[in-house]
Amino acid sequence: EIYTLSLHDALPISVLPPGSTPIRVLHFSDLHITSQQRRKHAWIRALAALRPDVVINTGDTLSAADAIPAVMRSLEPLFDFPGAFVPGNNDYYAPAPKNPLAYFRRHVPQPNQPSLPWPALARAMARPGWLDLTHRRASIMVRSGAIAVAGTDDPHLRKARYELIAGLADRSAIVRIGVIHSPEPYLLQSFADDGYDLVLAGHTHGGQVRVPFGPAIVTNCGIDVHRARWLHRWDDRMWFHVCAGLGTNPYMPIRFGCRPEASLLTLVARAS
Question: Which of 76, 174, 197, 242 could form a disulfide with 145, with the two C-beta atoms 3.0–4.6 Å apart?
Fold first, then answer.
């Protein structure tokens, strides 16, 4: 696999108060790590050279029960920076072979695969200081002030309970960021209604298979195929960014027209 870095400096996200110093957010998702993927581990470690102000992981980090040591080795240099994470559906259950046509179903059946040790991984990632945002509101301090963050459990497995974090976002923060795994429209609307400036999500793999120079074929969630990856507006009040992700289900290691990637977002000041 050829991993790429999606740099969103060409379209800075104007969400900070006038006069604010830019904030660089490293956003990655859907790592789907197994212990054998040494090239992927090394590429993730090298992201620390970007020196981001904050790191956000939007889930599906695991792909095997024995992969926690590999995850922690991969992320170790990034723990030097403030960060936060939420779980994805594949953090809870081991991957399994799947009929590709299943991604076109509107109804998502509950999985029956063996469980993965997500609680142990969450504790491991929180130990160096990253925030577990599963149904939690919190603040992350960066050089220019406090970032208000809030997240939910995985919506794909119907675990998201937005009512547990509902309420107006902290207006004293320099920016307000929602963190979810799957970019479901009802959650995006809830964050917009509560005054968040930006929501970060993953899950779609950017479609994983895309029409050449066109949209994704399927998103595996409620968002439309034209917004299956990258930066978009929601309701004219909020931005949302969908990271196309670094991995795949090990039983379906195919990406077409959609390279694996991480994203570096630059948040800048609004016009005064």
Answer: 174
d(CA 224, CA 2): 26
Cβ pair 53, 16 in contact under 8 A: no
pLDDT range class, residue 109, cuts 50, 70, 90: low
The stretch 59-64 carries a mean pLDDT of 94
The pLDDT of residue 105: 60
pTM here is 0.90
CA–CA distances in Å: residue 59 to residues 67, 170, 172, 230, 261: 14, 24, 28, 16, 14
Tokens of 166: 């509902």
Structure tokens given for 5: 């870095």
Residues with Cβ within 8 Å of 186's Cβ and at least 6 positions away in sequence, in order, are: 162, 222
Query: For residues 83 and 78, what is the distance between their CA atoms, to the nearest angstrom?
Result: 8
